[in-house]
């Protein structure tokens, strides 16, 4: 896969290891990294860490079932709402919705020159620290009667209940690439992946449906809670209120840090964990 090729090529900077990378993959990596510098920088940091002998994170357990394709009407309303905002988007995008009984995904392939395109899920596999959902853009067969209007095909999928980081890769005729424009939703949160804003800070951005416009965020690493803070949103529930803030950790942001998003009960103040997302390292 392209991520493996990227990792091997970046690792070559310190070990000269290039086995497993074809000339075509090398060319794809060079072209891809021109427009996705942050993602490539993340892989480069991983490569250097592994070259120094850092252990790979333990892979998650195998999922109990493969992705199930859904008709739009059978997908959660939240995913259909997200899809409406993708109608005129040029770039691939994805949203993961973590429900109580299952995890759902919607994958948009980006603008296509005609109708007849479809997005299919080709597999769900474990990866270090989480999961990888593989999707493929299916092109219309030669001679098919399709609309000549621009379209953005979207596939909807039901996955097993998942925890940990879920990443999406999309295969097209041009190759296989990670979908970097990715959102994470739950019953009360719609957030982007948290990112490291500095040596001791993490930026979190999104929207939350929170009692009295306040939810709770925690930062964990190595099995320890490093931080817990209330976060103010622009308005209280049942509406979604926007938020964007920077969390400061005096001891610095450790490798493997994750942000937990929790709602607070209006009845007794108890906390419910809805999302846990790893922090994207700074470039």
Provide a brief overview of the structure.
With 283 residues, the chain is of the alpha+beta class. It is 18% helix and 40% strand.
Report on the structure:
This protein has 283 residues and is of the alpha+beta class. The protein has three domains: 2-51, no CATH class; 68-185, no CATH class; 190-278, Immunoglobulin-like, CATH 2.60.40.10. Helix content is 18%, strand content 40%. It has four helices and 17 strands. It has helices spanning 2-15, 23-35, 37-51, 77-84; strands at residues 68-70, 93-98, 103-108, 118-127, 130-138, 154-159, 165-172, 175-178, 182-185, 189-192, 195-198, 201-208, 214-221, 224-232, 241-248, 258-264, 271-278. The strands form three sheets. Strands 1, 2, 3, 6, 9, 10, 11, 12 and 15 form a nine-stranded mixed β-sheet that branches. Helix 1 (2-15) packs across helix 2, helix 1 (2-15) packs across helix 3 and helix 2 packs across helix 3 (37-51). The longest helix is centred in the N-terminal third of the chain and has 15 residues, at 37-51. It is globular and about 60 Å long. Residues 1-20 have low confidence and may be disordered.
